[in-house]
C-alpha cells in the first residue's frame, strides 16, 4: 500500500522570528523569512520511507497554513525506492531510515546530502485483543515482556505459540493464550527492516549467519505487508500476529507493543525518555551525519531506535527549488520539531539541529 501526501504551501511575504535560545537558529529563521520574499510558485517532489510519513503529513499541513506558494508532494514508497528515485533524478528529495551508502551516493550525479530530520523507535506490535476479550481470565498486561533471545527466535520461527514456556518465564502470573504466533514483516525494501535486522544481527550470531541485515532479507517465517501501514493493517487483522513497525503506527492504531530486554538486562517500553537516552549515545560524524547504534548499553535505553534522514541533492540547477527546499528544511528543524512528541517521534536535540542547519546551508543553488 502506498501512502500519498500532497499538500500545497506558500511562502509568506512577511517572515516570522522564533525566539529560541540558540543564536544560530534565530539567525537562520530570519534569513529563511527574508528568502521567502524571493520565491513565487515552486513545486517539490519527494519519496521514500514510510517511517516518517505521518510526521511529514503533519508538517506539510502546518506548513501549508503559513506558506501557500510551494507545492510539496511526498510518496511513502519505502527507503529503497526513495533512494533509487533520487539516484535516477526523478525526485527533488528522498527520505530514508538508513541514510544512504557510499556506493549509492556515488551514483547521484548532482551529489547528495543526508540530513537527520527526526527520530523514533521501531516496536514489536502484536494482536491478542480478540483472545483477551473472549477470556477475562487471561489477565494480559499492556506490554508483554520479550527477552532478547525470545524475540529473535520468534522471527526465526523457533517459537511458534504465545504460551511458549520461554515467553511465560518473563511474564509470571500472565495466563498466555494457546494461540499460534503469526509473524508479519515488510515486503518492500525498507529502512525499518534494515534497522531491525541490524539489531537482530548484533545480538544473535544465529540470526546474523542465517538471515543477516538489510533493507530486504530472506525471512524464515511469516507473511509480508507493504510499508509500515501494510504491516500494521495485517497485525490488526490477524489474531496472534506480531510484527515490527515505527512506534507512531502502533500508537495511532492502539496496538500493544512489547517491552524488550535491552543489553543491560532490563525490559524497556518505548517512551520519549527511553528512546532519547538511546539517541544520546549516537554520535553523528561531521562529514555525512549518518550513524546508528545497534545495541545500546544504557540501563534504561530502548534497544531499537533510529534517526530518519532527508536526502537532498548537493546542487540544484533550479535556484527557486533549492531555496524553497532549504526554507522547508529549516522550518522542519525548528517549528516542525514541536509536533514530534505528540505523534510519537522524538524531537532532535539542539546540538543535532545546529549540525543539520549548518549542513543544509551547503545545498547549492
Describe this protein's structure.
- The protein has 365 residues and is an alpha/beta fold.
- A nine-stranded mixed beta sheet has the order 1-3-2-4-12-5-9-7-8. The chain has a three-stranded mixed beta sheet with strand order 6-10-11.
- The chain has two domains: 3-119 and 286-291 and 304-360, Periplasmic binding protein-like II (D-Maltodextrin-Binding Protein, domain 2, 3-Layer(aba) Sandwich); 122-280, Periplasmic binding protein-like II (D-Maltodextrin-Binding Protein, domain 2, 3-Layer(aba) Sandwich).
- Helix 1 runs antiparallel to helix 13 (319-334) and helix 13 runs antiparallel to helix 15 (350-360).
- The chain has 15 helices and twelve strands.
- The longest helix is centred in the C-terminal third of the chain and has 16 residues, at 319-334.
Q: Mind describing the biggest β-sheet? A: 9 strands, mixed
For the record, the count of structural domains works out to 2
SSE topology string:
EHEHEHEHEHEHHEHHEHEHEEHEHHH
Query: Helix segment count?
Result: 15
Principal-axes geometry comes out as elongated
Question: Which architecture of the largest domain per CATH?
Answer: 3-Layer(aba) Sandwich
Q: Under CATH, the topology of the largest domain is which?
A: D-Maltodextrin-Binding Protein, domain 2
Report how far apart the termini are: 35 Å
Poorly predicted segments: 1-37
Averaged pLDDT: 88
Number of strands: 12
Going by CATH, the homologous superfamily of the largest domain would be Periplasmic binding protein-like II
Radius of gyration of CA atoms, rounded to a whole number: 21 Å
Strand order of the largest sheet: 1-3-2-4-12-5-9-7-8
Beta fraction of the residues?
Answer: 15-25%
Fraction in helix:
25-40%
Class from helix and strand fractions:
alpha/beta
CATH class of the largest domain: Alpha Beta
Amino acid at each position: 500500500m502506498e501512502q500519498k501526501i500532497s499538500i500545497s504551501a506558500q511562502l509568506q511575504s512577511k517572515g516570522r522570528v522564533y525566539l529560541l535560545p540558540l543564536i544560530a537558529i534565530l539567525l537562520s529563521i530570519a534569513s529563511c523569512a527574508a528568502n521567502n520574499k524571493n520565491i513565487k510558485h515552486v513545486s517539490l517532489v519527494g519519496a521514500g520511507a514510510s517511517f516518517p510519513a505521518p510526521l511529514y503529513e503533519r508538517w506539510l499541513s502546518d506548513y501549508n497554513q503559513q506558506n501557500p506558494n510551494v507545492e510539496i508532494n511526498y510518496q511513502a514508497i519505502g527507503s529503497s525506492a526513495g533512494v533509487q528515485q533520487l539516484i535516477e533524478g526523478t525526485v527533488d528529495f528522498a527520505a530514508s531510515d538508513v541514510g544512504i551508502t557510499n556506493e549509492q551516493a556515488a551514483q547521484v550525479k548532482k551529489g547528495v546530502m543526508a540530513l537527520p530530520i527526526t527520530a523514533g523507535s521501531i516496536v514489536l506490535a502484536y494482536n491478542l485483543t480478540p483472545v483477551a476479550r473472549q477470556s477475562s481470565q487471561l489477565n494480559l498486561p499492556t506490554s508483554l515482556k520479550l527477552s532478547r533471545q525470545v524475540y529473535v527466535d520468534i522471527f526465526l520461527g523457533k517459537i511458534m505459540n504465545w504460551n511458549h514456556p520461554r515467553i511465560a518465564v518473563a511474564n509470571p502470573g500472565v495466563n498466555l493464550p494457546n494461540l499460534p504466533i503469526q509473524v508479519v514483516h515488510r515486503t518492500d525494501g525498507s529502512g525499518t527492516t534494515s534497522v531491525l535486522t541490524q539489531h537482530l544481527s548484533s545480538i544473535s550470531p544465529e540470526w546474523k549467519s542465517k538471515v543477516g541485515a538489510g533493507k530486504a532479507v530472506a525471512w524464515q517465517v511469516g507473511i509480508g505487508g507493504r510499508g509500515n501501514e501494510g504491516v500494521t493493517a495485517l497485525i490488526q487483522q490477524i489474531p496472534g500476529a506480531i510484527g515490527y513497525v515505527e512506534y507512531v503506527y502502533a500508537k495511532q492504531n492502539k496496538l500493544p507493543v512489547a517491552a524488550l530486554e535491552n543489553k543491560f538486562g532490563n525490559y524497556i517500553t518505548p517512551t520519549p525518555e527511553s528512546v532519547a537516552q538511546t539517541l544520546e549515545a549516537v554520535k553523528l560524524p561531521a562529514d555525512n551525519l549518518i550513524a546508528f547504534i545497534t545495541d545500546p548499553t544504557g540501563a534504561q535505553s530502548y534497544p531499537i531506535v533510529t534517526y530518519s534522514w532527508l536526502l537532498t541533492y548537493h546542487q540544484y540547477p533550479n535556484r527557486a527549488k533549492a531555496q524553497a527546499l532549504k526554507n522547508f528544511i529549516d522550518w522542519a528543524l525548528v517549528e516542525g520539531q514541536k509536533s514530534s512528541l505528540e505523534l510519537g517521534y522524538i524531537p532532535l536535540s539542539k546540538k543535532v539541529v545546529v549540525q543539520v542547519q549548518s549542513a543544509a546551508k551547503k545545498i547549492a543553488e
